[in-house]
Amino acid sequence: MTAEERQNLYTFRDYVTKILDPTYILSYVAPWFKEDEVQYIQAEKNNKGTVEAASLFLRFLLELQEEGWFRGFMDALNHAGYSGLYEAIENWDFQKIEKLEEYRLLLRRLQPEFKTRINPSDILPDISECLLDQECEEITQICSDKGPMAGAEKMVECLLRSDKENWPKSLKLALEKEESKFSELWITEKGAKDVALQDLEDEEMKTSEVQIFYKEEPECQNLSENSCPPSEVSHTHSPMKPRGYQLELALPAKNGKNTIICAPTGCGKTFVSLLICEHHLQKFPQGQKGKVVFFAVQVPVYEQQKSVFSKYFERRGYKVSGISGATAENVSVEQIIEDNDIIILTPQILVNSLKNGTVPSLSVFTLMIFDECHNTSKHHPYNMIMFNYLDQKLGGSSDSLPQVVGLTASVGVGDAKSTGEALEYICKLCASLDISVVATVKDNLEELEEVVYKPQKFFRKVESRTTDRFKCIISQLMKEAESLAKSIFDTLGTITLGNFSQIQNRNFGTQKYEQWIVAVQKKCMVLKMPDKDEESRICKALFLYTSHLRKFNDALIISEHARMKDALDYLKDFFRNVRTAGFDETEQDLTRRFEEKLQELESISMDPSNENPKLKDLCFVLQEEYHLNPETRTILFVKTRALVDALKKWIEENPKLSFLKPGISTGRGRTKQNIGMTLPAQKDVLHTFKTSGDNKILIATSVADEGIDIAQCNLVILYEYVGNVIKMIQTRGRGRARGSKCFLLTSNSDVIEKEKINIYKEKMMNDSILRLQTWDEAVFKEKVRQIQIHEKFIRDSQSKVKPILDKENKKLLCRKCKAFACYTADIRVVEDCHYTVVGDAFKKCFVSKLHPKPKNFGSFEKKAKIFCARQDCCHDWGIHVKYKTFEIPFIKIESFVVEDIATGAQTLYAKWRDFHFGKLPFDAAEMPK
């Protein structure tokens, strides 16, 4: 080491001490340190903290005179995972680390919010690459030992010391994925350092109810060169002739290489997979057989792919079958796999079968095809399957592994800002799928462009209302409700409503206000008082006030994007439901206040001068397009189910547009606010839209659930709707007819900017793929292998830490009124995922009402809903089902507060999996005869 390097290390010591935890590298540099020096450093950390320990470590380090210590120090940084610090010292350039300072400042300011809002276990897998492996283990252990708040505190400490330049963005993506309200506070763009002191914009984008997994439906209309619409399919068999670009896409996989096929929606990737599958099965010599598994993420796609594969292969003498979540209960997975050549599965079926040993290993297959393979990340079932594959590969197993083929319209680029970062993201996806080739169309581009029409993209910035009397009245009702809630706190003395949330300067009708409501509501639920009756009364009243505030806020958001009439109908429905359940003095007072304003609100909502300018613009676009082409078929994408209903009513009641006869399609997922469409209803709507000329427009919430893929669709409208680059490519791909158009309508210029960024990212993705395709195959394989080894190390490290079960008996209290419900000792688990309560005592704590939509699911028959038995509460606790010969309740943990019997401490859990207590399986012997 030169004197200059020693001086530089001393000069930049402040950067080093802010990042380095010396105890993580002591084992690597021990040869240069005396034993007592190592002990001093460890003691300094325990007594004074990490920064002081790092300062002492540097002092000892700079005093060393032995040869090689500097290189030993650098190697230690590299081995421990301090890649950012290593790079900075190697080049004596700390600019990247310096740029992180504003995010550290922001995180320090937001630390109280982070601790109360974030469950570290939910986001750790997504930010683990920004932390050291040892830090990940420590966070997991602290969560297990001391709970999520202590774990969140440790996570903040680790992030503040992170030297990874992408940690602020990775944290943002992880928060958005978990739909955390904290993500609105964590701003990673320029000016982030001031965000904690500023009010967020009122026009924030409302989070869309869109799943994080995107997909395409089988492209039946472009299967082959001689394809024809379903209605015209001949009953006599004629071999389908592949197009040139389809042969080009299939070639690497037909040569036996693990391949991602990345090609536009509508080009016939399904047919390409048929070609690959057929070639694969035919290549086996006499006496040997191949076995193919094709994965489809969603049940509608599974059903269509099963139909396509069956028609194509059964006439060729191959056996095709399939299993989905809807049919798994009645079939033997093992038998289906053994008896068939091609098996179509929803991926969770195989995940479960590998876990329980029904399928011993992936070696039973010779080819695996992943539809929508871009989902192979995080905890998606695709990744669970590939973890098994990679463990087998890297573990040195002698069993042969199946060939892997992935299909997608877009591999995506994640949060990449450059082609280099995009390339890294794509390499990571390739590593997850063990890919050696990314196949795209290059030699037959002209032919592809003749088949797949890329719609024109238009951006329209529309105006919002200039005056809004409706908003003024609802805002006044919200102020009154807030004032009533504050008056309760005034009686408590030491606690105020403001103390319950760090969010300041919140405005009505914004997502930020909803964040505040959620934060306050959660704090109210675990409010403790010496007088338990008083605690119950106050918690229930606060629950009611915050619930009403949330509904008012929802109504303002609906009014912003649709009609005032729709927002008012939403509130009238809510108050109608309030009257039918409990309806105590607090609810009566709030209902009276609303009804006093109802006539005025009715008058305002019916006034034509209050028409929403956004809807005027939407009407203009639709009229213009149907005037130019009366045969236009439209898909209108919106963010929420409430907007789907509102816009359907608006179109039906608008004489200029009623001829469109809108159909609607919303996801099957359930939220606290809405119940999704059933699968049969969804399929009926899509079938009608595809085959009938009656519905000229389909209003949908997302491409995630529906698999909408209509070749004749020539107009796509995104109404205040934007996502990532994958979603942009998929939604745009719905407009597949020649001359198709895609409009983005929004009053928020940020939405337009985000969509333009997506267009740039699409180009960046394509450039990255082209660059990747120029790499030497051996170089690419080694890159993939190194990523796989690193990811496996992280997985193995995380799997070593198991949550510690709480064996103490605890109480479950109604989350609304704090009435006692049951003890954890009486809870039993039915079929691994449903929770019931045994014993007669619990039966007195709830009342049952017939379920409005009784139905069978799996081995259960849903018969009734159960509610808190207190007449002034009636909080929803779950359902009553018939299981085998028993009628038992199923409770949901989000309806309860968990109270420690010894300390009285109260905790909220959103999901059962977060509640680590001794879970006993349901035993029929415990049930009364």
Automatic annotation (TrEMBL):
GO terms for biological process: antiviral innate immune response; cytoplasmic pattern recognition receptor signaling pathway; positive regulation of interferon-beta production; response to exogenous dsRNA. This is Antiviral innate immune response receptor RIG-I. Its EC number is 3.6.4.13. It catalyses: ATP + H2O = ADP + phosphate + H(+). Residues 796-929 form the RLR CTR domain. It comes from the Eukaryota. The keyword Transferase does not apply.
